[in-house]
Amino acid sequence: MSKQNEKPAVADGLWRGSSSGAGRAAVYKTVSTGSSTSSRSRAKAGKAGLGLTASDPRQGNRALRRENPNSNTPPPTDHGDLGPIWYSFDLAHKRIQPGGWTHQVTQRELPPSTDLTGVNMRLTAGSFRELHWHTADEWAYMLYGNARVTVLNPDGTIFIDDVSEGDIWYFPAGFPHSIQGLGPDGCEFLLVFDQGMFSEENTFLISEWVAHTPPSVLSKNFGLAESALAKLPTGELYIFPADLPNSLELDRAAVGGQKVQSPIQYTFKMQSMPPTKKTAGGEARVVDSRNFPVSRNIAAGLVTVKPGGIRELHWHPNASEWQFYIAGKGRMTVFSPVENARTMDFHANDVGYVPAVAGHYVENTGETDLVFLEMFKASEFLDFSLNNWIRRLPPQMVTSHLNLDEDDIKKIPAENQALIGEKK
Ligand code: MN
Ligand code: MN
CB-side exposure of 87: number of CA atoms within 13 Å? Predict the structure, then answer.
């Protein structure tokens, strides 16, 4: 045993548990026999001083450890390896160009997430995400500011609308659309696509199409002289600055008004809708194809958990879950067979992932509201509550499985509450 191992360091402040002689002896026995630490031996070590076993005298990214204490020193109930459940937009390459920036968390960054991909984008006032379309459906949540969006229907009608913080939009695959930042300070938004390998770098851009079509063909197609096409872009624009647009009314009128107006609504006010569920623990707002019909392939929940509260133990029968953390601080444990459980901490701009049908909870571990999005590649948001399941079973059946007293079983909430407040 080296000198360093004889003097466990606790410098990063994550060390927990007793440093009593008994604890040290128990830990040293585990270490010296060279046995790997199973959850059971870790649980035992926890009683005697888990901190000493888990102490790490040399290497460590202290900033990451402070951000994610539950990953570095997992609760003794964690076990096995169910793969990554965390990534952060703040680790992803940021493409910055005049007018804004973009970065993405896809299956390349978070390999188990094969269903959904996320993009976080900023446009300054007037700037465009250029006219384009793509192979995936696009769902979006406005995080900040104001934007104007347009989308064309196959029947030739056009949808033009303005969105602001808390609003969402949905553009089906292949439908051409645009996003423009409005005053006073443009916008920032989250995009979610229903393909794990989707890339924001790989969309069909109007600029690239005209740049890669012979001018004689463009001339014939547009009915314009080739000289009129001299200033067409010769490469991609992607994000670029432009003047602020006219008012919504003027822009709608300029293209033909009512007679070309889309009969389909592609935007929805998610944050300002009445909560789908509201308890002492917080609020949840669910938007899917039942209340926003165009949202056929992506379902979403906007969840606010009060300090001390939890998004209760639950699972989703129909899809994996892709999460985006908007504000606050939380931790999640994901449970999956056989005996796999992983706990991680989450902050604003982080992405969480839950494999299909895996059990999980999200606990607010901060002093302020925890706000996050639960996203699914599904037409409907569906979840099962562990509490609800327990309370719908004959009490004797529950007692046989969990050794809970019948009186205590009655204290468990009977309904799927989604959110449970701190026990006073
Ligand atoms: Mn798009
Ligand atoms: Mn969930």
Answer: 23
406 noted as active-site residue: no
The whole-number pLDDT of residue 41 equals 44
Q: Tokens 């909870």, residue?
A: 361
Distance CA 276, CA 165 (A): 19
Phi/psi for 353 (5° steps) reads: -135, 135
Please tell me the distance from the alpha carbon of residue 101 to that of residue 188, in angstroms, as a whole number.
9
Query: With the C-alpha atoms ordered 249, 253, 254, 258, is the resulting torsion angle positive or negative?
Result: positive
What count of other Cβ atoms lies within 10 Å of the Cβ of residue 79?
19
Q: CB of 129 within 8 A of CB of 186?
A: no
8 Å CB contact between 129 and 187: no
Q: What is the pLDDT of residue 50?
A: 60
> Which of 236, 363, 374, 406 does the annotation list as catalytic?
374
Q: Give the pLDDT of residue 423.
A: 82
What angle, rounded to 10 degrees, do the helices at 21-33 and 39-54 form?
110
The residues facing 315 across adjacent strands are 384
Name the CA dihedral angle for 275, 278, 283, 287, rounded to a multiple of 10 degrees: -30
Mean pLDDT by 10 residues, the chain (424 residues): 37 36 36 40 46 74 92 94 96 97 97 98 98 98 98 98 98 98 98 96 96 97 97 96 98 97 98 98 98 98 98 98 98 96 98 98 98 98 98 98 98 98 85
pTM for this entry: 0.88
Which ligand has the nearest atom to the CA of 320?
2
**Which ligand has the nearest atom to the CA of 202?**
1
* In 220-328, beta strands by DSSP E: 239-240, 267-269, 277-279, 282-287, 299-305, 310-315, 321-327
Q: State in Å: Cα 374 to ligand 2 middle.
A: 6
CA of 117 to the centre of ligand 1 (A): 12
As a whole number of angstroms, the distance between CA 237 and CA 232 comes to 11
DSSP state of 77: T
Q: Which helix (H) or strand (E) holds 335?
A: strand 329-336
Ligand nearest to the CA of 311: 2
pLDDT at residue 1 in the model: 35
What's residue 6's pLDDT? 37
Give the distance from CA 88 to its chain's centroid.
9
User: Which residues are registered as beta bridge partners of 285?
Assistant: 302
Nearest Cα residue to 354 out of 172, 82, 34, 129: 82
